[in-house]
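Could you help me review a protein record that somebody else here produced? Here is the record exactly as it was handed to me:
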Amino acid sequence: MTGAKRKKKSLPWSKMRIPRCEDFKQWCRRRLPILEWATHYSLKESLLPDTVSGMMLAVQQVAQGTFALTSLISANAVERLVPLSSQNLTTHSNTSVLGLSDFEMQRIGVAAAVSFLGGVIQVAMFVLQLGSATFLITEPVVSAMTTGAATHVVTSQAKYLLGMKMPHISGPLGFFYIYAYIFKNIKSVQLEALLLSLLSIVVLVLVKELNEQFKRKIKIVLPVDLVLMIAASFTCYCTDMENTYGLEVVGHIPKGIPPPRAPPMNILSAVITEAFGVALVGYVASLALAQGSAKKFRYSVDDNQEFLAHGLSNVIASFFFCIPSAAAMGRTAGLYSTGAKTQVACLISCIFVLIVIYTIGPLLYWLPMCVLASIIVVGLKGMLIQFRDLKRYWNVDKIDWGIWVSTYIFTICFAANVGLLFGVVCTTAIVIGRFPRAKTLSTKNMKEMEFKVKTEMDDETLQQVKIISINNPLVFLNAKKFHNDIMNIIQKENIGNQPLDEIRKYEQSTLVSSLSGVCNEEATQPCLNPKCSLVLDCSGLTFSDYTGVSMLVEVYMDCKNKSVDVSLVHCTASLIKAMKYCGNLDSEKPIFFESVSAAISNIHLNKNLSILSDHSEI
C-alpha cells in the first residue's frame, strides 16, 4: 500500500512538462522580435528606403529631441528639486563628465532618476501582465490626453517664442498662471524674438505642407528643420544676435556620450510622482501609435511586450544620463511618408544621431531658442489638430464627446497623468451605469428568426451564409473580444475538429451567438470562401460607444478583405449614421437591412446576378 501511494504521488510529476530548448528559443523570439524579423530582412528591397528614412528621422531627432510630453514631466521634477534660482548658491566647479558643472550634473541626475524609476515601473507592469488592462484606455481618452499634454508643451515654449524671462510655473492650474503672467508682463516681450518665431513657424508650416502635397512626386522631402537650424545658427553667429539684440541661444552643447554611471538613487522617492507619469503617459501615447500602425499594416501588437520594451529602454538609457523617451507622432508619420520598410530605419537614425553628438552638436551653440521653440511647436501639429476629432465623436457618440472634453480640461488644469486617470475612471463608470439598462435578444425571437430563414430560402444559399446575433452592448470593454469572436466563428479554424459539445461550449463563451446552422458545426473545413456571406443581427445591440462603432466598421473591412460580404440588420438610425461617419463603407451596394429575410433575399439576388454575369462572360 505504501509503495502504491508513493507511486500515485509521483504520477503528477511524471506528467509535468519539462522545458525544452525550443521553448526557450520561442520565448526569446517573442521577447526580442528582432530575432524573428532580422533573418528575413531583404537588403535589396529594404536597405535603401530604410537608409533614406533613417537619415530623415535623424534630422527630426536632432531638431526636436526626445518625446515632448515625457520631457515636460521630467522638467517638472528637475525644476522642483534643482531650480534655476539655486544656481547662484551652487559651486561652479566643473566635473569630469563632459566638462559640465556640478549644478548641471545635479539637474541631469534628476532627469536620469525619473527615467530610471519610470522604466522600472514599466518593467514591473510587464511582470504583472498589466498590458491586458489597456482596453480600459479608449481612443477618445488617449486623444484628449495627448492633445492636452501637447497644449502644455506649447505653453512651456511660450517664453522662448516671446523672448520673455519667466520663472518656472507648474502645479495645479499652472497652465493658467503662465498665461496670466504673460499678459501681466506683455510689455517685456522681445520684438526680435517674436518676429523670428513667427517667421520660423510660417516657413516650417509652408514647407512641410508642400512636402506633404508633393511627397508622391519627390522621393526625398526637404529637411526643413535642419535647414532652418543651420540658417538660423549661421545668421545668429554672423550678426552676433546674442549680444546685439539680446536673443537667448542654446549655448554650450557637450560633445560625446558620458561613461555609464548609475543615476542618483537617493532621490528616487522624491520623483515617484513624475516617474509614474512618465511610465503611463509614455506607454499610452506609444501604444496608441503602435496600434494605429498595426491597423494600417495589418499586424498584431502585444500590449504587454510594449511595457517591457519601453521599460528597458528607459532603465538602460538612464545610466547614460538620458531623459525618458517614448514614441512620437511626428516621427512616426515621418517614417510613413519617407517609405521606411522595417525597424532598421530607426537603427540607422540612431547611428546618424550619434555622429551628430560626437561631431556637429557643439556647432549648434548659436541656435536661437525662439527658433528651436518654433520647431518644437510645429512638430506638435499632429497632436494639436486632434481637436478635429471632436466633430467625429459628436456624430458617433455624444458621451464620448463629453469624455474627450472633460479629459482635456483635467489634463490642462492638472497634468497628463491626472487627465488619463480621470478619463479611464469616467469612461468605466459611465459604461457600468449604462449596462444595467441594456436589453438582450430573447430566445423566442432567435428561434422564430432561424425558422423563418430556413423555410424561405433554398439550401444552396443557406450553406454560404452565416447569421450571427449580437447580444450585448458593444463598448470598449468588449470590442476586442467581439472582433475575435466574429473572426473565429467565420473561420472555424480552431474548433472545426472538436466534438460538437465543445463547439457549443465555445459559442456560449462568446459575445455573439450563431443563429443558423449554415456552417456545418461538424465540418472540418472553415466556412471561409469567396462566396461566403455574413449577416449581423444587431437587435441585441442596445448601445455602443465610439470604440464599439469603430470595431463594427473594422469587422466589416476585415471581412471585405477576406471576400466575405457583410450585411447588418435591425440597426438603429443612430448606429447607421455613426458607422457611415466613422468608416468608409461600401456605397455601391446596400449593407443595412430591416430584417434577416431582406438581407438573405439580397444575398440570393446578388448570387443569381453573379451567375448570370459569369455565363455572359463565357
Remarks:
- The beta strands are 465-470, 512-514, 533-537, 565-569, 592-593.
